[in-house]
Every structure is written in structure tokens, then in C-alpha cells.
Amino acid sequence: MTQKKNNASRIADNKKAAYNYFFEEKFEAGMVLQGWEVKALREGKVQLTDGYVVIREGELYLIGCQINALKTASTHVSPEAQRTKKLLMHKEQIRRLIGKVEQKGYTLVPLNLYWKDSKVKCEIALAKGKAEHDKRDTIKEREGKREVERAMKERHK
Quick one: where's region Disordered (predicted)? Predict the structure, then answer.
């Protein structure tokens, strides 16, 4: 399971995921990256919103995560922004995920990228898609919280 991360170590968040899915379980996975990708992550040149995780031949892969190369990328490397990235987890965890993903309606979604002991980690969630009415409920709930915060702020002035 995941551990607490401080905000300074965060690289990118997938804010769309909470809107589109209900999260059942969260997992931490390592990432196999190339050197230019790590440099680009340090600069925050990553977009995670269209990303998803697939299982192929008993291994996890992150697809749709876009890491844009820096202008100073090496000349002998041809950076590919939407390269499929391998995720690293224990075999037992992957086997459990395979069983759950095969159930109807479940998918694996990347939630965020962060640094942990100078390594890039990806938090993924076993998720179930939300119906349209659930998304509307999420919006109403969020707006209700904003109204309460505004009222409290006005009251304390």
C-alpha cells in the first residue's frame, strides 16, 4: 500500500481520475524510465490525465502518459513523448490485480507520480467507472463544499 507523501515530492496528479472513477484500492508501482524522461519529470513536463494501465503477459504498462522532452535533450536520443512505460510491482500483487481487472467494470488508473528516495513512483488505483449521474453528484458535492467554505470565510471576517 502507499505511504504518506509530502507535496514537495509530487510530480503530477491525475485530477480527472477522481471525477471519472470510484477507487477500490490503491497501489504503489515503480517505473522504468529513460534518462531524458527523468530530467523532464524534474522539470514537471508530464501530463497524466489520459493515462491508463494495462496488463500484458503478467506485466503492468502505463499507456498514454505524456512526458515531453526538454529542449536540451541529447542529440543521440530520439525522445518519444507517449512511449509505453513499464510499471514494477511484486508478482503476487500483479496476480491479484489480474483477477480483479477481469471482473466487469474494473480498470487500473494512474493517480499520480511522485519521488520516493530519488526514484519515480506511480500510484495506481483499482477503479470502477462512474455513471453520468454519479459525476453530477460529485460536482454538486464539490460546489456545496465551496459554498460552505465561502460562508465560513465571510463569517470570520
Answer: 131-157
